[in-house]
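Weekly structure sync, notes
Attendees: PL (lead), two postdocs, one rotation student
Agenda item 3: pending single-chain targets
PL asked that the sequence for the first pending target be pasted directly into the notes so everyone works from the same version. It is reproduced below exactly as submitted, 149 residues in total.
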Amino acid sequence: MGLELVNVAMTCRKLADPPPDVPSEELGKAVKYYHLRQRVIAMVFKTGKVKVFSRNYPPPDLGYYGDCRVDIMVARGEMRAVPEEELRRRLSEAGFGDFKFVTNALMARRGGTSVRVAIPRRSFGKYKVMIFTKDLETAKQIHDLLQKL
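Predicted structure, written out during the meeting:
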């Protein structure tokens, strides 16, 4: 399994109102718009702030939101099962630290990037990996590093 982008959360500026035929729902402090068959979701807050969520980066240009900055990207993949000590050592060599083992998963941080490796109780051939970062290139580099273990 390669690296799959699961979600990109961005803060944007509102450029225009979506047309009335765009599906939406009122949430009290925001209006939630469902664009492109729910592949892009935008929450327009009464304060003027806009949060856009997409599975694509960059997201499709809808013309309603602009000047977007990425808050976080979530990517998932798999890696070959290795001993936890080796996984910690390799992540340490790549600059990760602050290791925590939480609910069958090893968590590690490097700056604004986090990695979560799910380690099942039974011995399976693969571990599931979640990468939380602000840029796609960093996610690809981490995924490539884990593939070499």
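Discussion points:
- The longest strand covers residues 65-80.
- The beta strands are 4-14, 24-26, 30-35, 40-45, 49-54, 65-80, 97-102, 105-110, 113-118, 126-133.
Action: rotation student to compare against the earlier draft before next sync.
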